[in-house]
Design goal:
Blueprint: E1 9-16, H1 39-44, E2 54-62, H2 69-83, E3 88-94, H3 100-111, E4 116-120, H4 133-144, E5 151-156, E6 159-162, E7 167-168, E8 177-178, E9 186-189, E10 192-195, E11 220-224, H5 232-240, E12 244-249, H6 257-268, E13 272-277, H7 297-312
Parallel strand pairs: 1-2, 1-3, 3-4, 4-5, 11-12, 12-13
Antiparallel strand pairs: 5-6, 6-9, 7-8, 9-10
The protein binds aspartic acid.
Aspartic acid binds at residues 17-18, 34, 63-65, 96-98, 121, 123.
Length: 316
């Protein structure tokens, strides 16, 4: 018989970030070093977590600004392996805030798990006078243990986000995330989930899609359309060799004529081009929106990369 509820383990996977960061002075919120404390130490520092059966594993120890495809591959593989365990009910990932939305989107597209996978982070180092990491970690484990929870989720500053939707929108404030027009999925208040939208759903592409050597993954770069865009950057990237380009277009996905001409040249050389908007909210609308118009530029980069990886698979 399948095991249920709190008896099943919650695996906490550590990757570093400010939540594991330390500063020389408690009042220092910016001059700190991320990724200094191990995930075991983060868990041990929070007695309130003792009510759940937890297992902790260090997958990486980096500032998430330096996220690599190799770390992503390892995280996807470890998360998939733990998800497959009958005795595991949920996964929590501690991460940096800077690229949290990219990792969350990748995990959503590859795993879209039937069990909850909850990412959390912190805006202040663990040594801060009012560190936000411990509460965020407690909220993440609380959410992970929620009966019926599923999919890739994130929790920060008491707000619960769908992993496919969240975006970092502030470089300093504790409530640094939003989800564009979609809004939050819910909130954790005094250890209780209040939820006003359904759990994230999706068809997982599967962890095997990213099993190739990360050095061989398709190269996909992001270029922004702006006043004075002349396309020379695109020409330079194409000369170096690139598989895909994501354009952060202006407004409703329009690009400067100079940049547009360079993108046409790139297409002519077989480079895949995805058009998004550089607007911080909303999506590209209308007939020309294309497959990437509803994604942020960084999400579209992942989507394009996964699509190109899928094309390389031998036909079955
Ligand atoms: N640079 C840090 C990181 O993303 C910032 C943070 O975690 O808030 O790892």
């Amino acid at each position: 018989m399948a095991m249920e509820g709190p008896a099943r383990k919650i695996v906490v996977l550590g990757t570093g970030g400010t939540i594991a960061g330390t500063a020389a002075r408690p009042e220092d919120h910016t001059g700190y070093r991320a990724a200094q404390l191990g995930v075991q130490a983060l868990v041990a520092a929070l007695p309130a977590l003792q009510r759940w059966p937890l297992e902790a594993e260090q997958v990486a120890q980096i500032d998430s600004a330096d996220m690599t495809h190799a770390v992503w591959q390892r995280l996807v593989q470890r998360a998939a392996a733990h998800m497959a365990r009958e005795d595991v009910g949920a996964i929590v990932v501690t991460h940096g805030t800077d690229t949290l939305e990219e990792t969350a989107y990748l995990l959503h597209r590859l795993l879209a798990p039937a069990k909850p996978l909850v990412l959390t982070a912190a805006m202040r180092p663990a040594t801060a006078l009012q560190a936000d990491g411990p509460q965020n970690l407690l909220d993440a484990v609380t959410l992970a243990a929620e009966p019926g929870a599923r999919g890739v989720l994130a929790v920060m500053a008491g707000q619960v986000w769908s992993g496919a939707e969240l975006r970092k929108r502030h470089p300093y404030r504790l409530d640094a995330f939003d989800a564009g027009d979609a809004g939050a999925l819910g909130a954790i208040e005094q250890g209780v989930l209040r939820r006003w939208r359904d759990w994230p759903a999706g068809t997982p592409l599967g962890a095997a899609l990213v099993e190739a050597d990360p050095a061989q993954w398709p190269r996909v770069e992001i270029v922004t359309s702006h006043a004075g865009s002349d396309g020379r950057l695109v020409d330079a990237v194409c000369a170096q060799g690139v598989d895909g380009l994501v354009v952060a277009g202006v407004g409703n996905g329009q690009v400067h004529a100079g940049l547009g001409a360079a993108l046409e040249r790139a297409r002519g050389q077989g480079v895949a081009v995805a058009v998004t908007t550089r607007c911080s909210g909303g999506v590209v609308v209308g007939a020309g929106a294309g497959a990437y118009g509803a994604l942020t530029p960084v999400q579209a980069r992942i989507e394009l990369m996964l699509g190109l990886l899928a094309q390389r698979r031998p036909a079955r």
